[in-house]
Specification:
The structure is a homodimer of 481-residue chains. Chain A contains 16 helices and 16 strands. The first copy, chain A, has 481 residues and is α/β, with parallel strands linked by helices.
Chain lengths: 481, 481
């Protein structure tokens, strides 16, 4: 095909024209190093010339080491010949827009303390992979792929894999949610769920109310969307309801974003009565609530506490974003949004703009795993596992740290405030002794939280918990000196 | 936990206070239908009251059918009791922003002709799933999951799964691309690749040059980002180079977007010489090129034609977006961006804002499949398969349609222009006879292409191709009457 640009003239011998043409194509880089040339037979046929002309041209080029031949394989372009033209240098840095700058600046991974050997890291709240039931997962894969492998590996639907969607609707209804006026869409985890909602329903400058402190990734997503983030202080039982009302009253608020169960970072569970007043407050000002289902599966109670969305009954003022990523297979990135039917219809089109749909393979395998019933058993095991860790860590904290206050009552992490201590300074000292945690300021919307810190417990052993917390306690005493 | 809101007064009997508390919790919906209550023993312990009070309260509630007991299992809330409060109705439609509106409006799936039985659809250009090698895929899954299942199922890295990234860098270098000043990031398919780039490097109102017609999803993504889309007409060998220059000269252009191989929709392959002039033109005006690797794997030539990016050598003016989705496993949504190292670093943070990372399970399995060597064999089989279809369809078109012009020379689709025919009108007639295709206007940026249509061949059998094209020919004659 590259030879279709060769138009013969009547002045030069044909073999020479072929030779020069190949030379110039090699020089400009259009014929690639080690790329295969057509055989002399093919080329003579293609160009409608005598085969001898091609053979002569190839022989001359081979003499000049521009091409080489491997017997039985063909003729190839010799490497390292293309001319060094002026390199095109684009200043990508100058072209980054506000979104790109903010995404980079707020990317905590980019500004992380470097990993070192034997580090005890209390940063993670991702699940302990050792809990995953690999044999069941393999079984789920093989079952589902045998049933409809070709379907799962080809393009699917933007809303998601129907059996999984139905499973999740049913699952959410067991939480007391009325689902018949609602619909669901599968997303690549919680992050994409929030991102999609903000993409379609907010404009730069819009207000969004959230708990302060709150989930740092959520803050980042709101920031890159240019939202005006309005934080409401946290009391021991959740948001300050009077402050909430005064901020709702001030207007310009498009959404509320709340994490009612084992709130990140404080670990606070918003009690049923509080959920009711918070729900009614947002309803009064007609500001829809985005409910982050974070850690909800870890709630371990005899009397089930229902999501805020359950209070909305046939209403459509609450949007629920769910994900199992904090307990199950976060690597496959499957989450969901549950909400008003028409809203989901809009998000379906948004999803098609973002990435067409979430992996159907992952959705199929997750569905198979969930429906097998192993999930119930798994959740119970997981609850027990993290509860033990939590209680053990709490005990260590009381022994070694004695913080000014500990919020919350469980989950995968512990949040505490320390009197008169800068947690960044503490972190620096701890890092020298091979212990790290997340300083509180990353969770706040107003650069407060400087005396707070979060310990993520999911990826550290009991032994490490004890050792690490002891070291934090020692460094804390150092700070006080 | 729901009972922590119960504060006893001294006026009423304790059992009555418990009874009333549970009643109000049920009514407000905070105690969920069929939710389990703590046992009388647990609750008395929790509230530090006599167990008899709890038993009395439960008995009274059971009499009133507010709760029910299953022997050996426990006490539960009876269904269907919560009060019907005023429903909260949010007008989601009024809250949709421009992005949301455009995403919906430009979503061709939302405005599609309804499917019916026995329809011959020439709309799809997604791969024929029957070609997928399921046994090899299963093997790849089992191998990879045995090696590092826990790792693949837990959180991974935003840039991607390292072995897959390395594989792709090596793969791209065999296409003649100098990769040592470049880096790659894994995306959820081509769509997300383009979306991420535009998110971080364009602002509403910026100009973007593309071939006209071009890939309809790309047009949609540019539109929702508020870009000023500047189309350049296509000649039989690709973009009109003079028009390209005059549009670059006019200024305000942030990017060029090009599909050099089996261009969608026209099927044109940009020849090596043309690639060179197009590359130099963009370089002259310092406007980076986004090269869509679409269909590149289907190029079947003895002399390899290299991507435009290969001409950029050590430069950084070309960004390549790749995906195997048109030939292999589109359901798993894995694509990649190859480009300037610092640019990829920015996109890494953007990816973390969008959805943290692409499924590590999918990346791991795809890597295992690709490195097994089956991919090479698969591509060869695929090329042959689609080439046969293409040639067969071309023959049918010559027999039954005789279009004014056919562009391109291969791939999974055929694009043609018909003289004096409105392709939407033709589509209406064909639909009545159970044949559909994509009308040309969806691919244009200026509402032209009304006399054109695209036939996607990948999902129709030879028999259907012949039958379908014959019907299109008949309807065409009807239109001319």
């Amino acid at each position: 095909m590259i030879f279709s640009g060769l138009n013969f003239n009547d002045e030069e011998p044909v073999y020479l024209q072929i030779e020069n043409y190949i030379k110039s194509m090699v020089k400009s880089g259009m014929l690639v190093s080690n790329g295969k040339l057509p055989s002399s037979r093919e080329l003579s046929k293609l160009l409608e010339i005598s085969r001898n002309c091609v053979i002569t041209a190839y022989e001359n080029l081979e003499d000049k080491k521009i091409i080489y031949t491997i017997k039985g394989k063909g003729t190839f372009i010799s490497p390292g010949q293309s001319s060094d033209i002026d390199e095109w240098k684009v200043s990508w840095d100058e072209r980054i827009n506000t979104y790109g700058h903010l995404a980079y600046e707020l990317d905590i991974v980019k500004h992380e303390i470097p990993w070192k050997k034997n580090l005890i890291s209390f940063k993670s709240i991702s699940p302990d992979g050792e809990l995953f039931d690999m044999e069941e997962f393999k079984k789920a894969f093989l079952n589902r792929i045998s049933l409809e492998g070709h379907k799962l590996l080809n393009y699917g639907y933007a809303k998601g894999y129907k059996p999984l969607m139905d499973f999740l609707l049913e699952y959410m209804s067991t939480k007391g949610i009325k689902t018949d006026n609602k619909d669901t869409i599968i997303t690549n985890g919680f992050t994409e769920g929030l991102e999609m909602l903000l993409t379609a329903y907010t404009n730069p400058g819009d207000g969004i109310i959230c708990e302060n402190p709150t989930h740092n990734t959520a803050i980042k997503i709101m920031r890159v969307h240019g939202l005006n983030i309005v934080g409401v202080s946290m009391k021991q039982d959740g948001v300050d309801i009077n402050e909430l009302e005064s901020k709702l009253k001030s207007g310009g608020i498009k959404f509320g974003y709340l994490i009612p169960s084992y709130h990140n970072p404080t670990g606070i569970i918003m009690k049923a009565e509080k959920r009711y007043s918070v729900y009614n407050m947002f309803k009064k000002y007609n500001v829809p609530i985005i409910e982050d289902g974070f850690n909800e599966e870890l709630l371990y109670n005899s009397a089930q506490i229902s999501p805020i969305m359950a209070l909305d009954k046939g209403g459509n003022g609450v949007v629920y974003i769910g994900s199992f990523s904090k307990i199950l297979f976060p690597g496959i990135r499957v989450g969901w949004i549950l909400g008003d039917r028409k809203m989901i219809e809009t998000l379906e089109s948004v999803k098609r703009c973002k990435n067409i749909h979430t992996s159907f393979l992952d959705q199929g395998v997750l569905y198979e795993y969930l429906k097998s019933g192993d999930f119930e058993k798994y959740i119970k095991r997981t609850r027990k596992f993290y509860k033990e860790k939590y209680e053990f860590a709490l005990n260590c904290i009381e022994r070694f740290i004695k913080p000014a206050s500990i919020f919350g009552e469980g989950g995968m992490h512990i949040y505490m405030e320390l009197e008169g201590i800068d947690s960044r300074e503490l972190l620096e000292k701890c890092y020298k002794k091979n212990v790290i945690f997340t300083p509180g300021d990353v969770f706040t919307v107003d650069n407060t939280g400087k005396n707070a810190l979060r310990l993520g417990l999911s990826r550290v052993s009991l032994e490490e918990i004890e050792k690490g917390i002891k070291i934090i306690g020692e460094c804390l005493n150092d700070c006080k000196k």
